[in-house]
Design brief:
2 copies of one chain form a homodimer.
Chain A (H helix, E strand, L loop, with lengths): L5 H17 L5 H7 L6 H14 L2 E2 L8 E2 L1 H11 L21 H16 L2 E5 L8 E10 L2 E8 L3 E8 L6 H15 L9 H11 L3 H18 L3 E4 L13 H13 L1 H12 L7 E5 L11 E9 L5 E9 L4 H24 L1
Antiparallel strand pairs in A: 1-2, 3-7, 3-10, 4-5, 5-6, 8-9, 9-10
Chain A binds a DNA duplex (30 and 30 nucleotides) through helix 3.
Chain lengths: ~350, ~350
DNA sequence: ATTAGCACTCAACCAAAACGAGTGCTAACA
DNA sequence: TGTTAGCACTCGTTTTGGTTGAGTGCTAAT
């Protein structure tokens, strides 16, 4: 399955390239014209028959040209793409100015990417699971409400208003704050175990319910935002006829709205062991989500150290411009790696 | 234009009712059958010819039945709908349990509504413009970062990390907190004028840059989230053939993605003087946004007192079930009015 | 004022025909 | 033995033209 012979490779390459551009089944004549091997259409036909037998291309019907199969695409991205690595896409890095809110950066990134590629895009906020607590603060907003603020590594800030029955005096407040900070500081969420919690509650005395609530906030910080996903350009799907019959389009766009499917996808991506580049390509049925069986998805995982990972994904038709997309992602990935990390230190 | 005569009204009503159900042009025979005025199709035809001349109905082509025009729909919602006021829709109010985050409530509401009506829905978070400051707190996260938290009336919490060059000692921190709280507490954003700012900066002495940043956070609180809009069920559009040709669908769904159009819509809604009920109906071209010229939009404005207003909107085909939708909204509106307000006090 | 009747219109549907891009195969060629 | 020209064949697409039927407007009778 590996060795095709140079000529067959060239032909397969030409077929796919041409199909990527036109989206129409490509016949033997065209190939004999555009490919610079000077062969007649008849010869090409023979080779194409072979390629079809081997499963790399498919004939939609008897009297049509050939179309790449999933296997064909796979071979293309694995062997045939020459990564002209340096013509990096022009994601303006001006955008990543110390926009203090990560949320904003991500929203921008995903928008720019969608605009640049003309495909549908998604990005997941870095998971804070395994992230460390940096700072906890309780403050009395008024007699009946306490504001609890939790800052995690990477400056993820969460807050919650806790209702209380009686006002707490200033001193208790200070004591609680001290207690929380000294006990929890530097811990990851998974390290906050039952023993610690009981100990905390003990020391808090009569205010243990407040402690419970604060811990709750911490827990929410994780579970809640773990699935924060931003999307853009979902409607680009309409640009590709093979995806835009209303059945298909509806399901796809719905998936973008619900984000459930995207979440599954991202979890899959991150569990799978990233290659050297951290870029992965899912063609058709390779996607872990049924909805996307007619698409291809290219994902990249970016990191912020400390195991904080996020995923960028581009969803398009199978005949998407893999080269451009992969270059784009590779480039963006490194920018994100740097920019966000830099931001979180500053 | 006002007086149609009872018979014409009845006929118009029958036409629209029937069209709402079927979505097909309705002919004279059907009307003569279903309407309980016992008239022959021929008579109906005469009346229909009149109605067409008056602009209430339209003939898609010569040998087809009639379809309501925008004017027809307008007349329908204004005069013909009998608001069976009490059969309120069953939005389960269990959902509005003191979910402390308004964001969550809104996301839920919009989802339930979309699901219930099978139309596309949107909801805007209550504008905090004109909202009062309740509490400000600065805390040192570490040597180089200060966390600024601002709580507004209605428990809207905003935060921002402010980078500083040198650590501030505890005492200064306390002083600044005191200063900010005493000066700003209870003010609306518009009340924080230049004079006040200068006074603040003076008193802060060398730390005036921090004050500036905090004020910035306050400003952001308003400008930023003023346009927070949640949507759901955008793909319901595909359920209505007259909207789902890919040109149209693409634009519409895109509008939902971008939210820009929705924002304009909501601004328009809120500026327009709400009737008695606060419910408004935009039919076709009445909509302030060109994209929605083939839709109808029903909006309701809910309030939290203090001029905090938000808007709920339902976007569907012109032949949407106005009755159901308006009932739904009316009901929901009051629930929101109560629930969120109740929440903000608790 | 209402209605039955009738001629007329026109989108929608369907089947047959024409088209043409592309193939597989065979036979000739280098 | 690999390549190519030629040709019959296939089959989706497009075109054409005829039929159908829902619905109308008008007229004449009630």
């Amino acid at each position: 399955m590996e060795e095709l012979g140079e000529r067959k490779e060239k032909i397969l390459n030409a077929i796919i390239k041409h199909y990527l551009e036109t989206g129409e089944p490509v016949g033997s004549r065209v190939i004999s014209k555009i490919a610079d091997l000077s062969l007649s259409s008849a010869t090409i036909r023979n080779e194409m028959a072979d390629l079809e037998e081997l499963g790399y291309i498919i004939q939609p019907h008897t009297s049509a040209g050939r179309v790449p199969s999933d296997k064909g695409y796979r071979f293309y991205v694995d062997h045939l793409i020459e990564t002209k690595n340096q013509e990096v896409a022009e994601i303006k890095d001006l955008m990543i100015e110390k926009t203090e809110k990560m949320e904003k950066v991500l929203k921008q990134v995903v928008k720019i990417l969608a605009n640049d590629t003309q495909y549908a895009t998604m990005i997941s906020a870095p998971s804070v699971r395994g992230n460390r607590l940096k700072f906890v603060q309780l403050s009395a907003v008024d007699e009946n409400q306490i504001l609890s603020v939790v800052v995690m590594d990477g400056n993820v800030v969460k807050n919650k208003i806790i209702p209380v029955d009686d006002a707490l005096d200033n001193e208790t407040m200070l004591k609680l704050n001290m207690l929380l900070n000294t006990t929890l500081n530097g811990l990851t969420v998974s390290e906050i175990n039952l023993g610690l919690i009981t100990k905390l509650k003990e020391q808090a005395g009569i205010h243990e319910d407040i402690i419970a609530q604060v811990l709750n906030t911490v827990a929410e910080t994780i579970s809640d935002d773990d699935l924060e996903i931003y999307t853009s350009g979902a409607t680009n799907i309409f640009k590709y006829p093979e995806l835009s019959d209303s059945q298909n389009a509806s399901e796809l766009i719905s998936a973008f709205e619900e984000k459930q499917a995207l979440k599954e996808f991202i979890e899959e991506t991150q569990s799978e062991d990233g290659e050297d580049t951290g870029i992965q390509v899912y063609i058709g049925n390779e996607a872990p989500v049924q909805t996307m069986k007619d698409c291809s998805v290219v994902t990249a995982t970016y990191e912020l150290g400390d195991g904080m990972k996020g995923t960028i994904g581009i969803i398009g038709p199978k005949r998407m411009d893999y080269e451009k997309v992969m270059d784009n992602l590779k480039n963006l990935k490194s920018q994100l790696d740097n920019a966000l990390r830099g931001d979180s230190d500053k």
